[in-house]
Amino acid sequence: MLWETVRLAVQAIFRNGLRSFLTVLGIVIGVGAVIAMVTVGQGSTEQVTSDVEKLGSNMLMVLPGQDAMEGGALGSPPPMFSTRMNDLLEEQMPIIDVSAPMSTTRGRVIFGNENRRTDVIGTDNRYFTAARWELARGRLFDATELKSGKAVCVIGESVRKQLFGSSDPIGEEVRIKTLSCEIIGLTRSKGASTFGSDQDDFIIMPLRTFQGRIAGNTDVNLMIVAVRQGVDTDRAKAEIEAAMRDLRRIGAGEEDDFTVMDMKQLATMLSGITDILTGLLSAVAAVSLLVGGIGIMNIMLVSVTERTREIGIRLAIGAQARQVLLQFLVEAIILSLFGGLIGIAVGLGFGLLGAHLLAIPFRPDPGIILLAFGFSAAIGMIFGYFPARRAARLNPIDALRHE
Amino acid sequence: MTEPQGAAPLIRLRGISRVYGHGDAEVRALDGIDLDVETGEFVAIMGPSGSGKSTAMNVIGCLDAPTAGTYHFSGVEVAGLSRDQRALLRRHYLGFIFQGYNLLPRTSALHNVELPLIYKGLPRATRHALASQALARVGLAERAHHDPSELSGGQQQRVAIARALAGNPQVILADEPTGNLDTHLSAEIMEVLGDLNRNDGLTIVMVTHEADMAAYAKRLIWMVDGRIESDRPTDRAA
């Protein structure tokens, strides 16, 4: 009996194929939006996590000033760090594996007719260890180059691609401001990060070279610290903060004039943005599902009116009210489920597209897909009940006379 | 619901009234009808429009509940049954034929005939067999897979008869079965009904306004103003 009801419902739905499709469009859009968002959201969360993994979950960043993420405090700029401070920190603290002093700016790199704005970084070989960069070609800096501040540099894959295309960059000279710099190495590509920022877009030179020829000062404005394996990040953070207060001679009760940030914090912050976006779009999807449900109710009411005579026939030959109710309810549920299924397919399609465009992994969530399926059935049940009850309550005599 | 028993007349109406509306707007469609129909009878109900013959048909067919009076079907009181109980009664003991055929559109003849069997909860194979048998009985075996729109009016009405037959009912109730058909096809349908009555012993109650059609029945009831005015055997009764 139930199987017959289902078969009948499917027949009725396909008898008005186009109408049925338009009816469930709201459900399709709602479910599709949720599935696509969650798929992309999960992919990007996973990407953030793996990015952090790549950077090293044992990596900390030390920046001058407070609230570094908010773009600097008002008033006088915070005091910078120095190479000496970095080296002292590294020496004093056994939990630190390696600490790299850095100074960075944005600048234009020129080679022949090509040029590119990129991150210009001054540091030493410790940076490659701390930030887990490997060389694809060439070599790192040697001791003389570091000490005397020679004009040599290592470039990222994106810079190489734009300036050199298919030719070999090693040994070529590029120009940054007034500095002419020989390329000695090329890093292995890490690809785009979660939010599309290009991680391979940089040029690295010895810190001395950067300070003398680019910045014109002896500042260090960032330290990248790699903590030893097995050391708890929170503990490391606290210890480094204490050591930095000591080095900077900050008295008790005075505020830090630096920030120690771990990659987990960064990841949490980035994931937070994804969560907000997912939430907003889910709200839009909910409205769409509500509208979709009303659409189904509307078309089921039309269907009941159109098929009044059929209902009369069924009642006359012995259908009970609940059997008619079930028939229309099942029809509404199946209609809604079709919408849900199409929505899931569309959502996964857009999720796949989004994953491809954002260069993040495609991670469909079986839980959400099941939930969407169940939710579609629930919408059919809720919005199909009223029309179905109306059908079940028809008087067979009147229904048979209906034109 | 208890099983109907054999001894009593198949249909026994006593003082059946059906009143619509209240107060001044009150309409007595049926006004205290007494009627017995025995198994194997072929009864025609005639009368001017508004005489209550359709209402009588609806009450006998358990599509409508009487306002007053008692209705025993095979000895069981059914006047006070609920909607769903009446549906069960129709499902198991009654077969309907309507003026407008009332077949499901875009549904094959076979599937139309199967419809009451689905509600009886019979398995698919049994349904097919019984429906095919019923279609063969009305001479439409080779039209089983045609939609109603591909059949003539007479053929459609024969499908409707097959549908009424398929459930193996105790009574067939026909409401103006030839109302939409020309004289030739009407005669054809009446022959089918007459044959079912004679050879299969099926009880038939038919409402008609055509004397020619009523002549196929064995007993003629004439109604006026919600009352039975005359009740006599026809020439065929012999």
Polypeptide structure, described:
- The complex is a heterodimer of chains A (403) and B (238).
- By secondary structure, chain A is α+β, with helices and mostly antiparallel strands.
- Chain A folds into 2 domains: 2-50 and 269-401, no CATH class; 79-256, no CATH class.
- Helices cover 57% and strands 17% of the residues of chain A.
- Chain A has 14 helices and 10 strands.
- A 6-stranded mixed β-barrel of chain A has the order 2-3-8-5-7-6.
- In chain A, a hairpin with a 2-residue loop joins strand 2 (96-111) and strand 3 (114-123).
- By secondary structure, chain B is α/β, with parallel strands linked by helices.
- Chain B is built from 7 helices and 10 strands.
- In chain B, strand 1 and strand 2 (27-37) form a beta hairpin.
- Chain B starts with 10 loop residues before the first strand and ends in a 5-residue tail after the last strand.
- Chain A binds chain B through residues 1, 4, 15, 309-310, 312-323, 396-397, 400, and chain B through 58, 61, 63-64, 83-84, 87-88, 90-92, 94, 96, 98, 102-104, 106, 115-116, 118-121, 163, 167.
Number of DSSP helical runs of chain B: 7
The biggest beta sheet of chain B, please? 6 strands, mixed
* Oligomeric organization of the protein chains: heterodimer
Q: Return the average pLDDT of chain B rounded to an integer.
A: 91
Précis, in short:
The complex is a heterodimer of chains A (403) and B (238). Chain A is of the alpha+beta class and 403 residues long.
What order do the helices and strands come in, and which of them pair?
The complex is a heterodimer of chains A (403) and B (238).
Chain A: H1 2-15, H2 17-23, H3 25-55, E1 59-64, H4 83-92, E2 96-111, E3 114-123, H5 126-130, E4 135-138, H6 143-148, E5 152-155, H7 157-164, E6 173-176, E7 179-187, E8 202-206, H8 207-215, E9 222-227, H9 233-247, E10 258-262, H10 263-306, H11 308-316, H12 321-358, H13 366-392, H14 396-401
Chain B: E1 11-20, E2 27-37, E3 42-46, H1 53-60, E4 68-73, E5 76-77, H2 83-93, E6 94-97, H3 109-119, H4 124-137, H5 153-166, E7 171-175, H6 183-200, E8 203-207, H7 211-214, E9 219-224, E10 227-233
Parallel strand pairs in B: 3-8, 3-9, 6-7, 7-8
Antiparallel strand pairs in B: 1-2, 1-4, 4-5, 9-10
Helix pairs in contact in B: 3-4, 3-5, 4-5, 5-6
